[in-house]
Amino acid sequence: MLYSSTRGGEAGITASQAILKGLAADGGLFMPETLPTLGKPLTELARMSYQDLAYEVMKEFFTDFTEQELRDCIAHAYDAKFDTDRIAPLVKKDNAYFLELFHGKTIAFKDMALSILPHLMVTSARKNHCQDRIVILTATSGDTGKAAMAGFADVPGTEIIVFYPYGGVSKFQELQMRTEKGRNTHAAAIRGNFDDAQTGVKQIFGDHEFAESLKERGVVLSSANSINIGRLIPQVVYYVYAYGQLLNAGEIEAGEAINVCVPTGNFGNILAAYFAKHMGVPVAKLVCASNENKVLTDFFATGSYDRNRPFLLTSSPSMDILISSNLERLIYLSCGRDTGKTAELMENLKTKGAYSVTEEMKRFMEDFVGGSASEQEVSETICTLQKNTGYVIDPHTAVAKTVYDRYRAESGDTTKTVIASTASPFKFAPVVLTALGRNGKRDDVFAVIDELSALSGVAEPKAVSEVRTDPIRHNTIGEIRDMEGIVENFLFKM
Ligand SMILES: *Cc1c(COP(=O)(O)O)cnc(C)c1O
Separation of 315 CA from ligand 1 center, angstroms? Predict the structure, then answer.
């Protein structure tokens, strides 16, 4: 299996090279040159552990890894870091099945990919005879930072440096990062906002002189961005797993189609579901749920993508996105892998902030249904579901549940539906508790968590208890203009 850029500039790239590069040199994203199918029947895959299934799925994409290499990566990723050996349990509540993707280290779905990416990267480096220390740089508005730190923590041959805006992340998120124990992890607060931090990181990546000077000292910089194929493919696994769980529980018959509903930001998670469909999982509709930043809802309704609109801050911050990077991969498939067309549309996005697909491309995407939820609806959904079932969901998952309920009512489509549940409600305790009609806006976030725990009857996850008790280990505060110096300090000063 070889990979090529959606914009035509690179082709014939192995999986391990694509993982190391992240983004193609022409700015495009790497795509497998064909979408593979599952090598075994779903009824057989349904009986496997998450880890064995992960191997069956990933081996179709990462064909230059040996079986041992891939199995090692999987074993290191999906282990006791997860608080359940099912890794991604499926829970039936109300009219849907919630696929809980939040049982990893940071109680959000980014863990599903970020716990394996570091191992895929280190293995890829070894396969390509790269001896250097791999240093991951990332700017975070809160969630990705801790997930990346936890994923790379103590992975030999790697170092992870996270920049976050000083005073610009929640108290809880800041504590999560500052208490991270991994000896190769570093976090720095930067005086500026998230965009400043992000721009600073991009500048470091663009500074060739700096890269040279690091290279002389045995260091290469890399990113753990969500467009990396090493993050996308591991996400395919849990959709196959969900189907198997439905079969095992007797909820569906072999071959029966299901729908999938995904709270969407960068379009990575739902694209993974689409890949699962191509691999042979009977998926009918892919319901793409957005919050009030509903660029994708409008796109699927009209065929026009337009980011020229106000950026809204919502209670589902991980979906506050106006450019969904991974959509480029669907665009590429929808025009029959026409790299010229893909490059043209992405150029329009860059220069005008907008583009339109052809009628034919729009027809190709008919399996996708868009929908959006308002802040008010999200809050009501959390409250209603808790009242009716006792089950408490986070605001991102509530966006999906809201959109799914509306889709079901309007279309009359009662196909069994899996909703991707992307974060633990404890991660967003203040918003969730407020939605439940209690006082979630107190200064003491741990008191809010205690009340949520009592109300939901769910013990707080370990990720929360750790933040309560672990000592603060990261104290760096710096200026935007000093970010390269901060990197050098972390890497070379003992
Ligand atoms: C990142 C994230 C999403 C969005 O996923 P994409 O793959 O970017 O579409 C949704 N919910 C949560 C909690 C997230 O962290």
Answer: 13
> Quick check: 303 and 354 in contact, CB under 8 A?
no
Active site residue 110: yes
Tell me how far the alpha carbon of residue 103 lies from the centroid of ligand 1, in angstroms.
15
Structure tokens of 163?
């920049």
* Each residue's pLDDT tens digit, 438-491: 999 888 889 999 999 999 999 999 999 999 999 999 999 999 999 999 999 999
Catalytic residue among 21, 81, 105, 110: 110
Burial class (CB in 10 A: 0-12, 13-18, 19+), 479: middle
Tell me if 405 sits within 8 A of 382, measured CB to CB.
no
Write the DSSP string, 2-25. -EEETTSS--SB-HHHHHHH-B-T
Identify the pLDDT of residue 177. 95
Tell me what percent of the residues of the chain surpass a pLDDT of 70: 100
Rg (CA), the chain: 22
Percentage of residues in the chain having pLDDT higher than 90: 88
pTM over 0.90: yes
Q: For a substitution probing ligand 1, which of 422, 424, 432 has the most ligand atoms within 8 Å of its CB?
A: 422
137 CB-near residues (< 8 Å, 6+ apart): 161, 163, 201, 204, 205, 221, 222, 223, 487
pLDDT tens for 216-275 read 999 999 888 888 999 999 999 999 999 999 999 999 999 999 999 999 999 999 999 999
User: Rounded to an integer, what distance in angstroms lies between the CA atom of residue 450 and that of residue 388?
Assistant: 22
CB contact set of 13 (below 8 Å; sequence gap of 6+)? 2, 3, 4, 21, 24, 30
Q: Is the pLDDT of residue 30 over 80?
A: yes
For 232, list phi and psi in degrees, rounded to 5.
-65, -50
9-21 burial string, b = 16+ CB within 10 Å, else e?
ebeebbbbbbbbb
225 Cα: distance to centroid of ligand 1 (angstroms): 13
